[in-house]
Amino acid sequence: MLTTLTIESLILWLKENYIEILGFITSLICVWLNIRANIWGWFWAIISSAISAVFFYKLQLFGDMNLQFFFIVASIYGWYEWKFGEKDKTTQKLTITFLPNYFIVWVSIASVACFGVVFLVLKQLKGDFLLMDAITTTLSIVATWLMARKYVENWILWIIADVLYVGMYFQKEAYLYTLLYAIFLAMATKGFIDWRKKSFLEAKVLA
């Protein structure tokens, strides 16, 4: 009897949360491939973003929902950059590097401008957690672009964003996504460590 109830409860839970579960699995695959600098990570980013858009709509996190559409476009861009892009005219391919000092200023200015636009848009949509949603959305947009250009610093922004996401999803009682972003936090930390090592190795090869 107990076993039957347990199985029935599990089936019911799967039916009610299948979108969240699919988003969980595909997102993990995506980030794992990104850590390995595997171009297939962008394919899985498209899949996970489409699934997550539906999930975030249900939570009324409109910033995160619209962010998924950005991720889909950015993933196509990221795939193209990793396949055909160059860091600059002096290199033959896109390599893992740190942001040049002069470029940090421009990225910071662009981030502030992006936050302003995102905040105003989300204010019109009247979703939950307006300020937090705007901050995490901005961090995710900038981090995605940095990843597409293979800058190590993308992982630092993901670490900050993941910490905020854990708190936000926990408050929304989206416990599977809370767990997912806690895992992402650990994976982003590993991503930073791995990409940092790879940047030094690739610099030696190009030297």
Q: If you had to describe this structure to a student in words, what would you say it looks like?
A:
- The chain is mostly helical and 207 residues long.
- It is built from 7 helices and no strands.
- It has one domain.
- It is globular.
What's the topology here?
Layout: H1 2-35, H2 40-59, H3 62-84, H4 101-125, H5 130-148, H6 154-171, H7 175-206
Helix pairs in contact: 1-2, 1-7, 2-3, 3-5, 4-5, 5-6, 6-7
Structural class: mainly alpha
Residue share in helix = over 70%
Q: What share of the residues does DSSP label as strand, in percent?
A: under 5%
Assembly level: single chain
How many helix segments?
Answer: 7
What is the total number of structural domains?
Answer: 1
Distance between the termini: 69 Å
Sheet with most strands: none
Overall pLDDT: 87
Number of strands: 0
Short summary:
This protein is mainly alpha-helical. 83% of the residues lie in helices and 0% in strands.
